[in-house]
Amino acid sequence: MAKELKGRAIHLKSRPQGEPTAANFELVETTIPEPAEGQILVCNLFMSVDPYMRGRMNDVKSYVPPFQVGQPLDGGVVGQVVHSKALGFEEGDFVSGPGGWREYHVAPANQYMKVDPGVGSLSAYLGVLGMPGMTAYVGLLDLGKPQAGETVFVSGAAGAVGGLVGQIAKLKGCRVVGSAGSAEKVKHLREELGFDDAFNYKDGPVAQALERTCPEGIDVYFDNVGGEHLEASIGKMKNYGRIVLCGAISQYNATAPAPGPRNLMLAVARRLTLQGFIVSDERHQERRPDFLRDVGGWLREKKVKEVETVVEGLDKAPEAFIGLLRGHNTGKMVVKLASPV
Q1: What is the DSSP code (8-state) at residue 206?
Q2: What's the domain range around 95?
Q3: To the nearest whole number, what is the mean pLDDT of the chain?
Q4: SS3 (DSSP) at 40
Q5: What's the structural domain count of the chain?
Q6: Which of 91, 105, 247, 273 has the fewest Cβ atoms within 10 Å of its own Cβ atom?
Q7: Where is the Enoyl reductase (ER) domain positioned along the sequence (predicted)?
Q8: 25-32: Cβ within 8 A, 24+ apart
Q9: Residue 36, domain CATH
Q10: Each residue of 281-292: pLDDT tens digit?
Q11: Residues 208 and 332 reside in one and the same domain
């Protein structure tokens, strides 16, 4: 690069106490270094905001290291190669990888994979063809193990993961019920994604809604919410039911420990399986070729829909993230940073 390149990045200015605010973030201009041998320079086109990022803002040990105050945040991106010093990558290639919350990123090429814009939109590789899609695929099929004719309940069903879980469950011949946080989202689940039934959890106790929508019980519960949803679902599980513990967004901003399900003894009486998972684990990543083949095929055949909420501009990324935690998105929340060249 003959000319010094400048780019902006969002830094973690301070650790949130409870719900994040704009004051926890800082927009900083930085100089972008030239890539070394084996590295590529990527112009980020779309970046992802995801619920798990809230946990990384706390200074606690977890399955991924915490973000550091005064340093750029990180996350998934889809971008275009500007300069390559790595075999197999050329200027103009579209790639997905790390380095979100910034306009440019330099990193080893082995952290990226090429993406095909002919299969889905570029931003789909952050959603239905990306980490959320992979989470839905392995969580439902490998852990939930749905069988045709079974009832699958999905909480947070209008989100990036939950929406695809429901669509895959329908493809497998299941009866699918979802919960969401507004009448508009409930309508979306029923009319756009093909859920058999759905309810607004803000309208009343979840247990009562499940009595109405799952009168014969639940075979598979895909939990994205935790809290009241988990307790109510345990109460409606059939014998030998499977609960897939994917997330607990209802508790991510909590400043005190949330109470656990008071009916956990039912897991013994009904011989339930409750299993958590992290999609980045090696045993799940081995399923990536199957995931891309199946979900990519369903997307091309229009058997599943790509649903996203797009916010424009890096400076709006904190707003998009806060909105995600408040449930302002339908489908995958992404931030558009630039257009392809």
Answers
A1: H
A2: 5-127+308-336
A3: 96
A4: strand
A5: 2
A6: 91
A7: 18-335
A8: 25/73, 25/317, 25/318, 27/314, 27/315, 28/72, 30/6, 30/102, 31/4, 31/5, 31/6, 32/5, 32/6, 32/7, 32/104, 32/106
A9: 3.90.180.10
A10: 999 999 999 999
A11: no
Q: Are 153 and 222 in contact (CB under 8 A)?
A: yes
pLDDT at 4 (0 to 100): 83
| Whole-number pLDDT of residue 259 | 79
Tokens of 319: 């707003």
On the 0-12 / 13-18 / 19+ scale of CB atoms within 10 A, 126 is: buried
Report, in angstroms and rounded to the nearest whole number, the Rg of the chain calculated over CA atoms: 20
Residue pair 152/325 in contact (Cβ under 8 Å)? The answer is no
Mean pLDDT, residues 25-31 taken together: 96
Distance CA 41, CA 79 (A): 10
State whether 183 and 111 are in the same domain: no
Question: How many helices (H) and strands (E) in the chain?
Answer: 10, 15
Residue 114 is assigned to a structural domain of this protein: yes
Task: Decide: residue 328, CB within 10 A, 0-12 exposed, 13-18 middle, 19+ buried.
Answer: middle
Under the banding of pLDDT at 50, 70 and 90, the label for residue 20 is very high
Q: How far apart are CA 71 and CA 102, in angstroms?
A: 11
The CATH number of residue 263's host domain is 3.40.50.720
* 160 and 111 belong to one structural domain: no
What average pLDDT does range 308-334 have in this prediction? 97
Any residues with CB less than 8 A from the CB of 112 and at least 6 apart, and which? 40, 42, 89, 95, 96, 97
What is the Cβ-side half-sphere exposure of residue 130, based on CA atoms within 13 angstroms?
35
| pLDDT for 250 | 87
